[in-house]
Inverse folding.
């Protein structure tokens, strides 16, 4: 924490957890979209999000984040209209997600090429978030560090090839946290790699070219 | 580098260096954020400008919250402060009006600076902008005092809490008042010890304040509590400047606030399960916004 975590952040009201945190959850999805606008998003609101989202503008905040706006962007207020103008078909579903944090949203999205993805995360207070699932696979990161997500096949050697690439070609990158998760043995898996520094743009492309890697994303420090 | 785990640490360092707390805190943050002091100051200056914009936004006559439960508080109070003869005097009433305007701006999805939280975002601007615009203190000194406020806030967050869900409203509006009281004391030429005294008095005078938002929204009673927080900040600063040293040291007051927060039941910590939120009218207002449960 520094002085501007106390006098700040600059944000659109009314609530750090239900508005600012919701924008940040949306922004995680925005990174997974990799610059494209989704054609369809379904937003499932759970717990307190489901009960009070209208009064806090949680719906607008999530959509604004998905479209790439920040928690200080005045566009949050008009996010529903902006999404319609951009041709994004959106829906909100109030549904309790079992065992989830009270302020949880699950977002399913469809890209123009028909491919789909999902993210589930919680707003845990003061605008801070915790991402729990990406594409149905368990992850664990809070966006306070630069985070690389690597989707890959669960085969021996993939982790080594990613970390070797980072070490030998991008010498200064220091990994501060590593989390691996898979659906079933030999199936889809996700590496969550948190790093201290902001990596060069080329790193993600280089990781995507590695064998057995299906995709990779960089989620810059939120 | 400061650890920001005790206010005494800041006071002792300022006394030893014969400097204001804010001067040391600005320097310390410039080092830890690896930026020039000037750019750190400018970032704070930007926050102050945004606070001014929030006042202007929230004082509009047609300001309404997203839920429709509240609106127009900043406008009504500034009209009253300007025309009538307020009991608190036009200076304090004007500061209350500014704080209500910022809190209203927040409730209508306007842009605010959380200070330290969104729910308590009106207290610091209400106090500080008034010191510039009504009392004529130089804007530079007022912006500098925000470093003292911020540093005290960091200690409060570390030793106690600034989240209503964790510590109740004492942790939000109470912390904001204590931060503002310290800043006001510094602007008035108080010593570093007096800044700490003002903070201690503010914390001690609102221990136990519960977070009981009607319908779970940052509106009732949050908006008016910002105005109450302004009055508490001014009275605490005045008592400190008058030499009424608190009998309980400031850091112990913060520890007490944490303990009181821990002892508060969950119904009184932002869950809308108790206090005003659980009154018959509070429940009716909830139904009006969200429908029957």
């Amino acid at each position: 924490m520094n002085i501007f975590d106390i006098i700040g952040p600059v944000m659109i009201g009314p609530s750090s957890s239900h508005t600012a945190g919701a924008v940040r959850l949306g922004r995680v999805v925005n990174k997974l979209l990799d610059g494209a606008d989704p054609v369809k998003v379904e937003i499932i609101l759970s717990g307190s999000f489901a009960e009070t989202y209208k009064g806090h503008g949680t719906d607008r905040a999530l959509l604004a984040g998905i479209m790439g706006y920040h928690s200080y962007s005045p566009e949050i207020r008009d996010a529903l209209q902006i999404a319609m103008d951009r041709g994004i078909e959106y829906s909100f579903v109030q549904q309790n997600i079992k065992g989830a944090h009270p302020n949880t949203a699950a977002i399913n999205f469809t890209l123009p090429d028909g491919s789909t993805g999902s993210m589930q995360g919680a707003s845990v207070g003061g605008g801070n978030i915790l991402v729990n699932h990406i594409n149905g696979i368990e992850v664990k990161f809070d966006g306070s560090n630069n985070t690389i997500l690597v989707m890959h096949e669960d085969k021996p050697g993939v982790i080594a090839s990613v970390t070797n690439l980072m070490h030998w070609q991008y010498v200064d990158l220091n990994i501060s946290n590593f989390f691996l998760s898979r659906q079933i043995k030999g199936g889809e898996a996700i590496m969550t790699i948190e790093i201290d520094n902001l990596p060069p743009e080329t790193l993600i492309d280089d990781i995507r070219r590695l064998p057995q890697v299906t995709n990779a994303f960089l989620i810059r420090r939120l | 580098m400061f650890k920001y785990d005790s206010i005494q640490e800041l006071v002792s360092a300022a006394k030893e260096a014969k400097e204001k707390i804010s001067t040391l805190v600005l320097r310390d943050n410039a080092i830890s954020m690896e930026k020039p002091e000037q750019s750190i100051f400018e970032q704070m200056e930007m926050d102050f400008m945004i606070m001014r914009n929030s006042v202007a936004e929230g004082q509009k006559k047609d300001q309404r919250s997203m839920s429709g439960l509240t609106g127009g508080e900043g406008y009504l109070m500034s009209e009253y402060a300007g025309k009538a003869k307020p009991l608190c005097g036009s200076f304090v009433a004007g500061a209350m009006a500014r704080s209500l305007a910022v809190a209203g701006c927040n409730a209508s999805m306007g842009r605010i600076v959380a200070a330290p939280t969104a729910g308590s975002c009106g207290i610091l601007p209400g106090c500080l902008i008034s010191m510039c615009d009504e009392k004529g203190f130089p804007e530079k000194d007022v912006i500098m005092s925000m470093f003292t406020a911020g540093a005290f806030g960091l200690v409060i967050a570390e030793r106690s809490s600034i989240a209503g869900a964790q510590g109740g409203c004492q942790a939000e509006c109470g912390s904001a008042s204590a931060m503002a009281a310290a800043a006001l004391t510094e602007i008035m030429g108080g010593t570093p010890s007096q800044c700490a005294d003002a903070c201690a008095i503010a914390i001690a005078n609102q221990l136990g304040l519960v977070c009981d938002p009607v319908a779970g929204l940052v509106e009732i009673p949050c908006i008016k509590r910002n105005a109450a927080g302004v009055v508490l900040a001014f009275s605490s600063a005045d008592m400190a400047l008058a030499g009424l040293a608190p009998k309980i040291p400031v850091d112990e007051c913060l520890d007490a606030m944490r303990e009181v927060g821990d002892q508060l039941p969950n119904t009184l910590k932002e869950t809308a399960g108790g206090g005003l939120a659980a009154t018959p009218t509070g429940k009716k207002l909830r139904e009006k916004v969200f429908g029957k449960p």
Notes: The first strand of chain A starts at residue 10 and ends at 12. Chain A touches chain B through 34 residues (CB under 8 Å).
